[in-house]
């Protein structure tokens, strides 16, 4: 639970107009998208980010056509950026069974490259994370992003209807009511929301590591041949691999390795140092083409711990005027390539209902701190009601996909089983009616407000 108090300890900034501002904790992909969506709807935003500089990591990221539409709804400039920097992949999802040790993949014709294909229309845009973050930051108005601000505590004041945030540098900020935790898988806002000792407050190791980097196309093409210019998921025993171009010059590489026999060494860190030899060791049973690809990796590697929220999901994403979104709410393993996409869907619902709350309060000259608090907390209740089920289902589905990609499920024995098992979940993941969800959010919020006012 977020603590509550009635005793004022901080200065209130003098901003009586408009009705509320939003404080976002965390300037990752979700915090940035959400901020831009709110600003477009004339809702003032400040982003508090613990890092002293905001730069994306050196790896790729992809977004489905539906997620691109969601970005456009948030702010059309976001999808315009993707069109500018991204690489479009207009293919259904496809996998190669790389456990076929003796096969020479270079002998396969262009139509035979993949062993498993989903009969599902799909357009995906792939890009470099660091470039995307850079471009999104450029769209923020001056003063919106506050760096070096690591959130430590939140207190909801019942007398003023405001929220006091305290930061590690000793400063406190009183926010006009709304705090959104977009602080990632190791979210401190989620920890505060769940309450001390609650296992839902912390992410749990999904017993899997990822090794990710960017490799020059000039090194990849001679090895992967026809596979170099498309997205390929390589599946095998105990490990899997994703390769895709993020531009004409570089290819994204992400290897996933099951860690049944080892725990994560340091829970305060998301990455630990690793070596190329460690990756090669995990792929010894893979096809020679993949083993040749591993040889071109840099010697120094980072091992990313994959944490998720499957075993201890949050019972609610909100508490009064505080909410969590993105990985902070429903961190998942990355096997649908949709973790950020699901967070962007959260942002769509949040901007929709916060805009409604803003309109209501702007037209209410007699709004009190209590009525303001009520309008915002009802908006957050709608967000929780609309988003929790789908986003937590995605966490479970992604875990299952990770097991499939490593041939770990005894009931899945061949390509047909694989496609059958994946198809239904994949269509739910990638073809999602976000416009309907926007309508449902508005209806649910109006209903909640009508019930409150009765
Ligand atoms: C290998 C891999 C591949 C992936 N591929 C895809 C893909 O193709 N498509 C896709 O949609 N998703 C993908 N994902 C998932 C995606 O990366 C995440 O879902 C997404 O980055 C989450 O964004 P976020 O903004 O919620 O969190 P983050 O990106 O983790 O951002 C959180 C921010 O909060 C800040 N922060 C943390 N604590 C505090 C604090 N106390 N105070 C202030 N600031 C704080 C952090 O510094 C950080 O900047 C992948 C994930 C992995 C691991």
UniProtKB/TrEMBL annotation:
InterPro entries: FAD-bd (IPR002938), FAD/NAD-bd_sf (IPR036188), FAD_monoxygenase (IPR051104). Residues 146-379 form the FAD-binding domain. The keyword Transcription regulation does not apply. This is Zeaxanthin epoxidase. It comes from Talaromyces pinophilus. It comes from the Eukaryota. Keywords: FAD, Flavoprotein, Oxidoreductase. One of its GO terms (biological process) is secondary metabolite biosynthetic process. One of its GO terms (molecular function) is FAD binding.
């Amino acid at each position: 639970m977020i603590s509550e108090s009635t005793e004022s300890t901080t200065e209130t900034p003098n901003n009586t107009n408009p009705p509320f501002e939003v404080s976002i904790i965390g300037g990752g992909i979700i915090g940035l998208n959400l901020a831009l969506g709110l600003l477009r709807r004339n809702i003032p935003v400040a982003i508090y980010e613990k890092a002293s500089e905001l730069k994306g990591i050196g790896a790729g990221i992809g977004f489905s056509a539906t997620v691109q539409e969601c970005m456009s709804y948030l702010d059309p400039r976001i999808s315009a950026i993707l069109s500018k920097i991204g690489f479009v992949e207009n293919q259904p999802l496809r996998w190669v069974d790389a456990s076929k040790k003796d096969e020479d993949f270079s002998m396969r014709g262009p139509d035979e490259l993949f062993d498993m294909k989903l009969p599902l229309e799909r357009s995906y845009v792939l890009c470099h994370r660091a470039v995307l973050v850079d471009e999104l930051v450029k769209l923020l108005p001056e003063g919106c992003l506050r760096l070096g601000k690591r959130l430590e505590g939140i207190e909801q004041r019942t007398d003023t209807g405001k929220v006091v945030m305290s930061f590690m540098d000793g400063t406190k900020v009183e926010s006009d009511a709304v705090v959104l935790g977009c602080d990632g898988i190791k979210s401190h806002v989620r920890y505060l929301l769940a309450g001390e000792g609650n296992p839902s407050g912390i992410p749990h190791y999904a017993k899997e590591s990822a090794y990710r980097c960017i490799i020059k196309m000039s090194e990849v093409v001679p090895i992967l041949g026809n596979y170099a210019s498309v997205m390929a998921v390589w599946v095998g025993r105990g490990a899997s691999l994703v390769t895709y171009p993020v531009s004409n010059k570089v290819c994204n590489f992400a290897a996933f390795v099951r860690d049944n026999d080892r725990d994560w060494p340091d829970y305060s860190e998301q990455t630990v140092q690793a070596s190329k030899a460690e990756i090669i060791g995990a792929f010894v049973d893979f096809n020679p083409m993949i083993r040749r690809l591993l040889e071109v990796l840099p010697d120094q590697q980072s091992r990313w711990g994959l944490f998720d929220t499957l075993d201890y999901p949050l019972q609610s994403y909100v508490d009064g005027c505080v909410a969590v979104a993105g990985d902070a709410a429903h961190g998942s393993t990355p096997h649908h390539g949709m973790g950020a996409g699901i967070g962007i869907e959260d942002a769509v619902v949040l901007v929709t209902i916060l805009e409604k709350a803003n309109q209501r309060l702007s037209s209410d000259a007699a709004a009190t701190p209590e009525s303001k608090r009520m309008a915002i907390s009802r908006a957050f209740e709608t967000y929780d009601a609309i988003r929790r089920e789908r986003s937590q289902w995605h966490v479970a589905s992604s875990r299952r996909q990770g097991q499939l990609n490593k041939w770990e499920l005894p009931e899945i024995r061949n390509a047909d089983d694989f496609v059958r098992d994946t198809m239904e979940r994949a269509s739910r993941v990638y073809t999602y009616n976000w416009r309907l969800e926007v309508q449902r959010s508005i209806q649910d919020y109006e209903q909640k407000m009508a019930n409150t006012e009765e």
